[in-house]
């Protein structure tokens, strides 16, 4: 499901002072949220979203869809890789495999490697073969040679580590003796189940939700460090590069000035909010169901500040949203104060 981002701007002056550490929310009795996998169905993910997943849910790694077959390149991959790295998360990729022959698997592996390299997937990351096509399932153990060909080519051509992902009902399609990544969804996942504990990981839910993100997500419990190892650089702090460009007072996400900036973007080491090309200044932004404040220069703020006699706390944990009111009550309060 694609995400939609709602942006609302309502203005006034804001005064800032002391800082405050953010709260952490965790699930009580579910398997660990060690890794989340994302694709175009989740829309373009952002650094604040991944930071919130890291801090509030314990997410350590992200696996993003890179490609499918020999023609489809997931448009969210490059941005997801960059956002996950900026959030200090391990990043991996997956390719949806359609091949049922060795030759076809090699061709798809070459394409997946080229797209992963173009997207910036780091050497040493995992590039997974996603095996779930009905024709592949029907092949049973005969599919192992096809998956093995894909994996071998990925390692040779890309320098990526690799494994296979499939459903628990079709383990026989994964290479014999190899630890894999298995999906199987109990009616009520609990922390004591530990299904497929001899594999790299278990995808236990395909409808998980996160408080800063719209839609539903696949979440996974990991049993080893396969998805959290052998990456040369994990960026703990935001970089300082340009990601938006201005022309005639309008901001764009490309140097050709074709796509207007919309939503919260990281640019030159800070976060900024845009509404259809316009930089929001001294205003609120309602995004992902949370409220953010942009200062007079347009930067999202952290710390504590006062506005219309109220004290507001945006924390110092890199998530930037206001912490001392629920979105619903805050929405009502902001509307009242702006009358």
Automatic annotation (TrEMBL):
GO terms for biological process: carbohydrate catabolic process; cell wall macromolecule catabolic process; peptidoglycan catabolic process. Residues 1-21 form the signal peptide. SUPFAM superfamilies: (Trans)glycosidases (SSF51445). Pfam families: Glyco_hydro_25 (PF01183). Gene3D superfamilies: Glycosidases. PROSITE patterns: GLYCOSYL_HYDROL_F25_2. GO terms for molecular function: lysozyme activity. Belongs to the glycosyl hydrolase 25 family. This is Lyzozyme M1 (1,4-beta-N-acetylmuramidase).
């Amino acid at each position: 499901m694609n995400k939609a981002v709602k942006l609302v701007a309502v203005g006034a002056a804001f005064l800032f002072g002391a800082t405050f550490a953010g709260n952490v929310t965790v699930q009580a009795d579910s398997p660990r949220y060690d890794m989340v996998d994302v694709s175009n169905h989740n829309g373009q993910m952002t650094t604040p979203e991944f930071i919130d997943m890291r801090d509030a849910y314990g997410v350590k790694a992200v696996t993003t869809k890179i490609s499918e077959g020999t023609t489809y390149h997931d448009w969210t991959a490059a941005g997801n890789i960059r956002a996950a790295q900026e959030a200090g998360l391990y990043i991996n990729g997956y390719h949806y495999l359609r091949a049922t022959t060795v030759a076809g698997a090699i061709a798809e592996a070459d394409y997946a490697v080229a797209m992963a390299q173009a997207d910036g997937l780091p050497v040493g990351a995992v590039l997974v073969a996603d095996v779930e096509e009905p024709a592949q399932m029907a092949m049973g153990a005969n599919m192992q040679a096809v998956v093995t060909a894909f994996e071998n080519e990925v390692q040779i051509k890309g320098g990526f580590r690799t494994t296979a992902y499939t459903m628990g009902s079709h383990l026989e399609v994964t290479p014999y003796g190899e630890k894999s990544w298995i999906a199987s969804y109990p009616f009520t996942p609990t922390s004591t189940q530990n299904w497929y504990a001899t594999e790299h990981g278990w995808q236990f839910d395909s409808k998980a939700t996160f408080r800063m993100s719209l839609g539903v997500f696949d979440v996974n419990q990991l049993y080893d460090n396969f998805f959290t190892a052998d990456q040369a650089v994990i960026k703990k702090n935001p970089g300082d590069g340009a990601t938006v460009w201005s022309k005639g007072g309008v901001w764009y996400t490309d140097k050709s000035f074709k796509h207007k900036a919309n939503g919260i973007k990281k640019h030159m080491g800070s976060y900024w909010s845009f509404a259809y090309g316009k930089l929001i200044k001294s205003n609120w932004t309602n995004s992902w169901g949370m409220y953010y404040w942009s200062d007079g220069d347009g930067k999202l703020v952290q710390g504590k500040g006062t506005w219309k006699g109220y004290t507001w706390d945006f924390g110092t944990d890199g998530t930037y949203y206001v912490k001392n009111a629920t979105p619903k009550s805050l929405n009502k309060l902001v509307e009242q104060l702006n009358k």
